């Protein structure tokens, strides 16, 4: 059960005085817009009507357009707006912030509790992607309607029900069944194992491998295995939304090879050449053109050619420390692109890479 709103959460003279009659429980990682949309509908309110109770803001005069906001962008509030929402939802501000990432302190609009409550729906989310939550997981929770997650990446995988979802809305299937793509399911499991065993280093190595595969797909989208996976998923082979799904298996296997390189700790010319030759053999097996794809691997090796100075290593020596060149570029959190030392972005033209 959730925490009930406490006395110190008093929203002030003009705020709501009591909770709405019916509750809605937030889903971990849910977008604020998705949650307030469900809370409004649970109580027979349109989203536009509900927003009037959360403070001041500008919305379309067309209520049908307002109803589409949660699937298109994210809602942000200031501190007073958070407390208004807390009263209406009958959940403490802390619990809401725990489950709804866009209510975190770093994303609150300017203005403290003494300011007027305010909300905004910018054209694009300030961070992350709106990705559809697994429909069957939603049914299990009894949410009753679509749930949108605020995801660091533009896709989500539900291993429990075997579904892939992404941020595409109204363009092809909302969900891709993975029953006929077992290699993608396996790849996601490998990604989870890397994170569980090696922590941030494992996640960042997967991110590096994924970025290399993004480079390959951008230059070679007609690679046979990727075309076949896209068609199996009911997607076009050159659709950008298909890219993360179809390159996932190669990215996971490449991440394992990158892990072997880092753990070996040998970074001289001979070691780098030997590793590159081994990965080129994998590329041949995958059907990825070696001459076209080698450049991305050379960039990665360049960023990973120097180890971490001894003075910077943890005293217990138990943690895998990635190359110093990697750490200067990669973020410790965020999307796969942000967590990689390779700055290519899905959607770039080949000439820009």
Strand content: 5-15%
Q: Give the termini distance in whole angstroms.
A: 50 Å
Task: Write down the domain tally.
Answer: 2
Low-confidence stretches: 1-8
Radius of gyration: 23 Å
Strand segment count = 7
Structural category is mainly alpha
Strand neighbour order, sheet with most strands: 5-6-7
Provide the succession of SSEs.
Answer: HHHHEHHEEHEEEEHHHHHH
Q: Overall pLDDT, averaged? A: 90
**Largest pleated sheet:** 3 strands, antiparallel
Described by the principal axes of the CA atoms, the overall outline is elongated
How would you sum up this structure, described in words?
It is a single chain. The chain is 44% helix and 7% strand. The protein has helices at 32-42, 47-51, 63-67, 69-72, 79-89, 93-99, 135-141, 182-219, 224-232, 242-264, 269-286, 290-303, 324-327, and strands spanning 76-77, 119-120, 129-132, 148-151, 155-158, 163-166, 175-177. The strands form 3 sheets. It has a 3-stranded antiparallel β-sheet, with no helix packed on it. Strand 5 and strand 6 (163-166) form a beta hairpin. Helix 9 packs across helix 10. The chain is elongated and about 70 Å long.
Provide a brief overview of the structure.
With 353 residues, the chain is mainly alpha-helical.
What secondary-structure arrangement, pairings included, does this model have?
Blueprint: H1 32-42, H2 47-51, H3 63-67, H4 69-72, E1 76-77, H5 79-89, H6 93-99, E2 119-120, E3 129-132, H7 135-141, E4 148-151, E5 155-158, E6 163-166, E7 175-177, H8 182-219, H9 224-232, H10 242-264, H11 269-286, H12 290-303, H13 324-327
Antiparallel strand pairs: 1-2, 3-4, 5-6, 6-7
